[in-house]
């Protein structure tokens, strides 16, 4: 089943038909935005389109497909595998991971219990982000990630959509192939895309994933329970994350992590991360940019 | 007449048993609905077991049809022509329109409402069977006395 087929199986039939006519390159489809009573927007080939009954359009005046209330109910059924009750924890975090590793972000009426979002009812918007794997994208940075043939702590920095999670995922695969045992603390199910206990993305054979667990707790649990050589974690930034990363260092684990930012100076504005960088915790900082194309390397910093 | 009532009772009891299993699996294990239905139906023979198993199977195929439609479609195929009444079938179809799309609290409530409805129907049916069985037994005794008198 390819990327487009796994996306289409969570959509109502009318949208499946229109998508199959308009989207010819599954790898170029980034996201589908579904809002009750509104046209359907897609990001395809780095451009925004609307879905028409017979394909895509970026023109006004063309008959667009409107996402009805019935379609929303159906889509919620499909993304939850007809089992919304079984996904309360995920819904409470605002998203559901579906088969293929795609992530459905949700908006609607929140139900609060004990000071936290228990679930979301009357779902009104879904942002379906299509998961892509870019095999081999870590090859261009991998020569910089080792010192005396040992992996060194690495931070990948990029703005949203520039490919930091994609690079992290491929680096995990690369490390696994090189014989490292990698523990992945995957709070938002974006690295491994675990679905019903099965890792959807190809991460290699030496990878253990703690799915849906808060990052800092996940790092500590992995250290205690799985004895990883390297810990991989996405989007760090809090004091708790930093505390857990320091624990990893004293436990003999290496770390590969990502952080939001437009560059090294930008990420240093986060005081928790600045402290780690100033102390030389990360031996390499890989900065990615959106232009000329997502995944472009802006710079690799550290002592080579 | 007695056969029809007893057969309906048997089908309602089977429905009750399956829904109790479904409720337990949802409440305690949070199992996905297609698996729950396949399990609830798979271990049982007969119309009701097959009905749940086939709904579960179709839902797991992601056929692009809503759960309510699959549920209604399979219910019509399996239950029409059985001893269940129109109201019994409609109540079952109503369950299908509200299962799977609610959070755990609401889901349990939906199943409780349906189980309460099944219980009420079964109690009313038992009473009807009791009354009719008594009536037919009395008719049988009277017929026996009548035949005896004629023979004498």
| Beta-strand fraction estimate of chain B | under 5%
Average residue-wise pLDDT of chain B = 89
User: How would you write the strand order of the largest sheet of chain A?
Assistant: 5-4-3-1-9-8-7
Tell me the span between the first and last alpha carbons of chain B. Answer: 32 Å
**Main sheet: strands, sense, barrel of chain A:** 7 strands, antiparallel
CATH architecture of the largest domain in chain A: 3-Layer(aba) Sandwich
What summary fits the major beta sheet of chain B? none
Which protein chains are joined by the largest interface, and how many residues does each one contribute? Answer: A-B, 25 and 20 residues
Description:
The complex is a heterodimer of chains A (304) and B (152). With 304 residues, chain A is an alpha/beta fold. Chain A is built from nine helices and 20 strands. In chain A, strand 17 (230-233), helix 7 and strand 18 (254-260) form a beta-alpha-beta unit. The mean pLDDT of chain A is 90. The relative contact order of chain B is 0.14. Chain B has six helices and no strands. The two termini of chain B are 32 Å apart. Chain B is an all-alpha fold and 152 residues long. Chain B is 82% helix and 0% strand. Chain A binds chain B through residues 9-10, 12-13, 16, 70, 73-74, 76-78, 80-86, 88, 91, 111, 118-119, 121, 196, and chain B through 26, 30-34, 59, 62, 64-67, 99-104, 106-107.
């Amino acid at each position: 089943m390819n990327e487009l087929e796994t996306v289409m199986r969570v959509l109502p039939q009318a949208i499946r038909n229109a998508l199959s006519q308009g989207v010819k390159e599954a790898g170029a489809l980034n996201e589908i935005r579904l809002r009750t009573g509104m046209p359907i927007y897609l990001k395809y080939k780095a451009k925004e389109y609307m879905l028409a009954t017979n394909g895509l359009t970026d023109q006004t005046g063309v008959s667009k497909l409107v996402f009805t209330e019935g379609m929303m109910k159906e889509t919620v059924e499909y993304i939850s595998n007809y089992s919304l009750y079984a996904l309360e924890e995920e819904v409470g975090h605002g998203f559901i991971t579906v088969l293929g590793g795609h992530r459905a972000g949700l908006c609607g009426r929140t139900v609060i219990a004990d000071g936290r979002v228990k679930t979301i009812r009357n779902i009104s918007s879904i942002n379906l982000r299509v998961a892509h794997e870019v095999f081999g994208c870590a090859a261009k940075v991998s020569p910089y990630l080792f010192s005396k043939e040992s992996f060194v702590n690495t931070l990948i920095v990029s703005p949203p959509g520039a490919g930091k999670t994609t690079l992290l995922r491929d680096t995990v695969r690369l490390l696994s192939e090189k014989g490292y045992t990698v523990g992945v603390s995957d709070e938002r199910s974006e690295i491994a895309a675990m679905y019903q206990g099965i890792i959807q993305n190809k991460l290699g054979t030496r990878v253990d994933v703690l799915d849906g667990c808060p990052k800092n707790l996940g790092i500590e649990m992995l250290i205690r329970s799985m004895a990883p050589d390297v810990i991989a974690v996405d989007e760090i930034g809090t004091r708790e994350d930093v505390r857990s990363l320091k624990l990893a260092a004293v436990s003999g684990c290496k770390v590969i992590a990502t952080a939001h930012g437009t560059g090294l100076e930008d990420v240093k504005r986060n005081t928790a991360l600045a402290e780690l960088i100033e102390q030389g915790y990360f031996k390499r900082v890989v900065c990615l940019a959106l232009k000329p194309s997502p995944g472009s390397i802006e710079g690799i910093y550290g002592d080579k | 007449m007695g056969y029809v009532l007893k057969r309906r009772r048997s089908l309602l009891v089977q429905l009750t048993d399956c829904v109790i299993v479904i409720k337990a699996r949802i409440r305690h294990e949070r199992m996905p609905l297609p698996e729950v239905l396949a399990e609830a139906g798979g271990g049982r023979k007969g119309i009701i077991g097959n009905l749940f198993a086939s709904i579960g199977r179709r839902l797991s195929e992601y056929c692009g049809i809503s759960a309510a439609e699959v549920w209604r479609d399979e219910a019509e195929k399996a239950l029409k022509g059985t001893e269940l009444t129109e109201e019994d079938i409609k109540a079952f179809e109503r369950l299908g329109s509200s299962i799977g799309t609610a959070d755990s609290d609401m889901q349990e409530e939906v199943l409780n409402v349906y189980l309460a409805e099944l219980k009420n129907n079964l109690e009313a049916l038992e009473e009807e069977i009791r009354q009719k069985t008594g009536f037919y037994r009395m008719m049988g005794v009277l017929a026996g006395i009548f035949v005896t008198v004629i023979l004498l």
